[in-house]
Amino acid sequence: MLSHMPTRREQARVETTERILAAARTQLAEVGAAALSLRAVTREVGMVSSAVYRYFPSRDELLTALIIEAYDAVGEAAEAAEQADAGSTGLERWVSVWRAVRAWAREHPAQYALIYGSPVPGYAAPTDTLPAAGRVATVLVRIAADGAGAREDPGPAVRNAIVPEVLPDLDPALAPAAIAAFTQLFGTVGFELFGQYENVVADRDVFFEHVARTAGRACGL
Amino acid sequence: MLSHMPTRREQARVETTERILAAARTQLAEVGAAALSLRAVTREVGMVSSAVYRYFPSRDELLTALIIEAYDAVGEAAEAAEQADAGSTGLERWVSVWRAVRAWAREHPAQYALIYGSPVPGYAAPTDTLPAAGRVATVLVRIAADGAGAREDPGPAVRNAIVPEVLPDLDPALAPAAIAAFTQLFGTVGFELFGQYENVVADRDVFFEHVARTAGRACGL
DNA sequence: TCTGCAGTGAGAGCAATGCTCTCGCTCAAC
DNA sequence: GTTGAGCGAGAGCATTGCTCTCACTGCAGA
Question: For labelling alongside B139, which of A20, A133, B86, B204 has CA 20 to 30 A away?
């Protein structure tokens, strides 16, 4: 089955889809997910509101596409940080990844809110987003698996509380700590971004660095 | 200045306000903050849509009132748990408070999303909500202050990263750990509620208990 | 006790939204 | 070439947040 030459129509379709997504990204960054207006997007693209339904069956589907994009973007930021520090110690790579996620979140607060805030519509489609969602976790687990520091076994009950398939090449004794660290990362970034640290944490750079190192050590780095 | 007898008008006003808030609470639980419709609220109350503006100047103001209510409700749940376990050890009280917050969140997911999810409108009014927001943190800090376990000083830079007024009667060396624990609590609950633990954490009760105890020990309990 | 005004609710109306349906045009497969 | 699917435009519907105006009514000052 040869991958046939794309017809003019097919090409126009992917181009229009990308233009819609680009406009939606802009809208998202400017007004946030809640106020993202389909009609405003189509206005920016230069077509009439009904035409967008040829490309996305509903506003929620458009948002789902943006969610997947955002998951991929944080994941790429994390992977890039990991590779940039490939020669460093596990703890240094770990902290670099944390920094990268925080930096991405601060640059793209609306996209971060979209994926790590409360689900926007009645309920977003979780199944479509699951594969993209795990990329940051994968990076963190990979780094933790290389560590050899002190690790205390939380016992079989807690070990079994984690789905084993998620962390195939990680010491099961470390899995709960890794999930807890993963949670701490996004909790801290979210609290900073959503204003929960207002009047609580003065120097967020220093505090974040401290939390990152502490979490890394708890994962045996 | 005597607190004068409330007139019929004044009484009717607080009653109507409460009826609006009650309907809004119901709506919030049923459809979530994003889909909360002012007109639907007034329909449930039995008045016409324009009348609600005599009580709340805008939809966002209504949401702000609900936000404050929600903060107070989690705070009360935390305080109640603390007092119910007043005789137990610090660590037991600590874990009880964590459990109470999680239980409240699972019973009121929409309200939880409202306060610990992404800010709903363009930007909510943070100043009105600040006093109510700190109640859970206050409880956790109070318990941590009673502990006498092992605590390692993170150093002056990290200590100074925390606003000192928030934790007046807490060992400054413990403040960063307390804030990190506070973050871990709401991060874990949020991840469970918003679906981030789907296919990751199988037994959430066990995992949560483990995280609570670990965080408590890190705070010297 | 009377008067006047502020508080209150109803109703109409405006701009905007998500979404549906129908109508032509055009590209591409047969 | 012909024909059908893909596509954009336009009108339209129900709904939303919010404003304005108009009556009515309870309360305070005279």
Answer: B204
